[in-house]
């Protein structure tokens, strides 16, 4: 099993921006001037920010039942398609309450595979106990989830792809090799979000370029 918590720690360390400021005072006949030098760093890709926030959403907010953080990592008007479709963070929080308590309540111990491009992330979570998997395709706005699709029915490896509409709602792939180090997104993986040809069922497909049948995951509702 991939050590997701160790990966999360490395991610947070990687994304910590440290500004090194040095002051230099010069003397002269006039008043002294202060010179400040700031270490220049490249901007953090939006995919890394969103991916890190999703790790925090699952590994910290969800696993610790921290609903304050859970709320902050969603927009107030978030739309979620899970077991039912809800609109607004209050409705989403209410919908997940049965999943947070009782003997069947699980915790997410791993994210893999991970796909992130632009405003979208797609991650498969491993839930323990039970060794169950779910996939979440999330659209982000200003560092918070504004749209979310959560599917828990994983088809057996090698299953034929369902007939889809052909007009995907989201089709992303890992374009930046640095994302593996930053959020664990391995090159070659892609994620497709689409409805069935009849428009009744949501499908999310993850696969890896050059991979085998075991490298493809198909989730349906």
Number of structurally distinct domains: 1
Assembly category: single chain
CATH top level assignment = Alpha Beta
Number of helices: 5
Walk me through this protein's architecture.
The protein has 221 residues and is of the alpha+beta class. The protein has one domain (44-220): Nuclear Transport Factor 2, Chain: A. Helix content is 22%, strand content 38%. The chain is built from five helices and 13 strands. It is globular and about 40 Å long. It starts with a helix and ends with a strand. 28% of the residues are buried.
Topology readout:
Elements: H1 4-15, E1 21-25, E2 34-38, H2 46-62, H3 67-72, E3 74-81, E4 85-87, H4 89-96, E5 107-117, E6 120-128, E7 132-141, E8 144-151, E9 153-154, E10 170-173, H5 179-183, E11 189-195, E12 202-208, E13 217-220
Parallel strand pairs: 3-8
Antiparallel strand pairs: 1-2, 3-4, 5-6, 6-7, 7-8, 9-13, 10-11, 11-12, 12-13
Helix pairs in contact: 1-2
Brief summary:
22% of the residues lie in helices and 38% in strands.
Which characteristics define this entry?
221 residues; alpha+beta; Nuclear Transport Factor 2, Chain: A; six-stranded mixed beta sheet; 5 helices
